[in-house]
TrEMBL record:
This is SDR family oxidoreductase. It comes from the Bacteria. The lineage of its organism: Bacteria, Bacillati, Actinomycetota, Actinomycetes, Micromonosporales. InterPro entries: Epimerase_deHydtase (IPR001509), NAD(P)-bd_dom_sf (IPR036291), NAD(P)-dependent_oxidoreduct (IPR051783). It holds the Pfam family Epimerase. GO terms for molecular function: aldehyde dehydrogenase (NAD+) activity. It comes from Micromonospora costi. Residues 3-73 form the NAD-dependent epimerase/dehydratase domain. GO terms for cellular component: cytoplasm.
Length: 293
């Protein structure tokens, strides 16, 4: 397939582009800067200049492709307003991509997060949250899956709280950045809350499988580690950076404090059984050993 990819130069997107090219697909990747365009070309893909807010560019990219993988998102978590702007931008982009593919039976693979289900690990059958700080993302992804009734082979790959590679990425990567800034490898609450995780190279395989074979209207969990205690994550970070490991007040984590403090394990049993995905790369705790002091 000729695949249009948004977010193709990020931690996950660059792995997805490489995975697609290695498996015989060609890639047109959205590039919002000269540096991004050069990175896309260096990877062996074709750049399409524009950003997530350039809806006409997104429509043109989707129109020229056999399928679309959407990964782009502005990861500015500095304030609730910044998050709201990012969610609104992504929602408009998804709506534009979806409308362009209506009636074509072409695949549209979008990204979501694994849902929070109190008292147990979430599964692929659980609905996404449509409330709270990032509830708009849940509403946008739900709308994309609804396009299955309008001739779009729409699917969602749900990512866990940490997608990592070489010791960086996701919530764990944010903990590392905060530790470097504060001089303490901290965690919210008592640290027993669990975060699921996956290596970016394993997640990339699932995005490809969803593009190639997932039925319309389905959701899949890119979960390799069902849930590591945040205290254990902070312990590795602290050891690697030579910093003390202690609980930190909620304000340390800004608008994500409530999410950071929540126990949110997740399962991928259905995904592994039904679509044949099997992660093979290092676990989060093992990968965090690559953090440089």
């Amino acid at each position: 397939m000729h695949v249009f990819v948004t977010g193709g130069t990020g931690l996950i997107g660059s792995a997805v582009v490489t995975e697609l090219l290695r498996n015989g697909h060609t890639v047109l990747a959205l590039a919002r800067s000269d540096a991004s365009a050069l990175a896309v070309e260096a990877a062996g893909a074709e750049p399409l200049r524009g950003g997530l807010a350039d809806l006409d560019v997104l429509r043109a990219g989707a129109a020229s492709a056999d399928g679309v993988i959407h990964l782009a998102f502005d990861h500015d978590f500095s304030s609730a307003d910044a998050v709201a702007r990012a969610v609104a931008e992504e929602s408009a982009a998804l709506a534009a991509l979806g409308e362009e593919l209506v009636g074509s039976d072409r695949p549209l693979v979008t990204v979501a997060g694994t849902p929070y289900t109190p008292g147990r690990a979430s599964t692929e059958a659980d609905p996404l949250s449509t409330d709270g700080l990032v509830g708009g993302r849940g509403r946008a992804v739900t709308a994309v899956l609804g396009l299955a009734t309008r001739g779009v082979r729409s699917t969602a790959v749900r990512l866990p709280r940490t997608v990592h590679n070489n010791g960086d990425g996701g919530f764990a990567g944010m903990l590392t950045a905060i530790a470097r800034r504060t001089g303490v490898s901290g965690y919210p609450g008592d640290g027993t809350q669990r975060w699921p995780a996956v290596h970016a190279l394993d997640a990339a395989v699932l995005f490809r499988l969803a593009l190639e074979r997932a039925p319309a209207g389905t959701s899949w969990h890119a979960v390799a580690d069902a849930g590591d205690a945040v205290r254990d994550i902070a312990a590795v970070i602290g050891r690697r950076l030579g910093l003390p490991v202690n609980p930190m007040p909620p304000e340390t984590y800004g608008p994500l404090a409530g999410i950071f403090a929540t126990d949110q394990p997740s399962s991928s049993v259905h995904t592994r059984t039904e679509i044949g995905w099997e992660p093979t790369h290092p676990s989060l705790l093992a990968d965090l050993e690559n953090i440089r002091p």
